[in-house]
Amino acid sequence: MWQKIKEHLGFISIICFYLVLFVPFLGQVHLFDWDEINFAEAAREMIVTGDWLNVQINYEPFWEKPPLFIWLQACSMSIFGVNEYAARFPNVVIGLVTLFVLYLSVYRRYGKQAGVFTLLMYIGSVTPHFYFKSGIIDPLFNLFIFCTILYLVRSTEYKRIANFFWAGLFLGLAVITKGPVCLLIVGLTGLVYQLYYKVNFYTTKGLLILFVGLLAFPALFFGIQVYQSGWWFLQEFITYQIDLFRYPIASHGQPFYYHFVVLLLGCFPLFVLALKPIASKTEIIGDANYARWMKVLFWVVLIIFSSVTTKIVHYSSMCYIPLAIVAGIWLSRYTVLTRFTRILLGFVGVVWVLILAACGSFFLVDINKFLSKYIQDEFLLAQLHTEVSWSFIPIVLGIILAGVLFKTLIKPSKISISSLLVTNSLVITLLMVSFVPQVEQTVQGNWITQLEKYKGKEMAHFTFGFKSYAHLFYTEQASFDDLKKAKEIILKRLELGDSHNLNEEERLAFHVYMRDYVVRETDIPVSISTKVQKFVEIREIYPELKKVYEANGYGVYERANVLGK
């Protein structure tokens, strides 16, 4: 027993390090709009309605995402309560599982040092570290894709049909986590691997078994959905997934090189350290097969999401795992840090040091007054004028990071690079504790605090001129009788039938009519949140409303005759 502990002491130390860094402070700041609040609201409504099969937002079908991650959040909220900690806790557990899978898969092929360095690469880089402290779907989605690839790797090495079944099973779990884009990622990775390395590992029997495993969970979930609600749900779900590739959903259109820049800056120092080995044609000595798969997976993911129209930071997060593995193996066999890598590492490192210094400068300088000269956006200006007590800690963190980076560049070695990764982990954690709360307070914190005051009240909550989920989650919007009756009246007027059968265009129209009806034709207590640019317009459209709160560039309006209820 002691021998096994000694053998894996480095791994055990990292797990303990991980728990210390990731478990505390999860609920320190409000959830961020949209994605974090989006999934948390769906989980909250599962608990409120008792309907764990159908994903709902505002008590209406939400077909954009399948339910698996939301189930985990709902389970967490059942234990910890409906709050930020519960919404983010599943990803801490998912992160822990990911580290175990990463370590074991690398350790068995390249040794314990490569396994340990892989984990350091992962949690010692900015965005991979941050994602396990968030309440978004991608960490679970990426874990299932990675497990699928692991079994495909094994299928090229061992002619066991069970490998295809397990690959399909994990792929099916990925489908009901985030959607069918995982089929494209895994399918293209396998195809490119075969064509590039001229290896044919697929057999008709193997593909059939993989297909059976793939269908196990999605067929059950979508089959029940179709049985209950008809084909419209599946149709809308597929349409939305296709539109993500065709159109810049939610105004997230970006240039082709967007994800390369995101990885370069966001995955510091992982991406810089992994760039040469992952781009090199030189084979890794020993088990080259596994490393080949990781390289192919990285490039397939990067190219796919660089090509689609909708580009969001976390779309390329599947790149983190192959980057960490390739970089971890490289560091375990470290010989030299090339001049190009040193220059790039120094450049990106200096950028991060400057970012930390800029964050700390908010403590020393009236940054609002300075930026106001150059910013024209009325909403952003209003956010910058939020009164916040900034900290000088980011400056200290920048000095520490600069010192460790300088030492690494002057005398690069396994130890100095590992020190940089450990230091970066601590810097990220301390930055999130000392700076992120102030950022959240600036961009939304005061407004959300106002929304929280509506908890427990039978009120209808809307937004005007922008999309949000905060007004639902933080007011704990209930579907009370008067609101249900109002919905039925609007559906009848618009001749739309059941609200469960509305497509996206009909749903948008329905919400506008619903808001107008509640404000103008009922005495239901109501609040409407809008942004500063819409203050004049909302007064013209709804003269019966009065602004009762303004902060972070948001205004909250209520019906004048129900104020104080």
The strand order across the widest sheet is 3-4-6-5
Number of strands: 6
Into which percentage range does the β-strand content fall?
under 5%
* Multimeric organization: single chain
Folded structure, characterized:
With 565 residues, this protein is mainly alpha-helical. It contains 26 helices and six strands. The protein has helices spanning 2-7, 9-22, 35-49, 68-80, 84-110, 112-123, 126-131, 138-157, 161-178, 181-197, 204-229, 232-246, 258-266, 270-279, 288-307, 320-332, 339-364, 367-372, 378-384, 393-410, 414-434, 436-452, 470-473, 481-493, 504-521, 535-541; strands spanning 56-57, 60-61, 460-464, 526-531, 545-551, 554-559. It has a four-stranded mixed beta sheet with strand order 3-4-6-5. A two-stranded antiparallel ribbon has the order 1-2. A hairpin with a 2-residue loop joins strand 1 (56-57) and strand 2. Helix 6 packs across helix 16 (320-332), helix 15 packs antiparallel against helix 16 (320-332) and helix 24 (481-493) packs across helix 25 (504-521). The longest helix is centred in the N-terminal third of the chain and has 27 residues, at 84-110. The N and C termini lie far apart (65 Å). The mean pLDDT is 89.
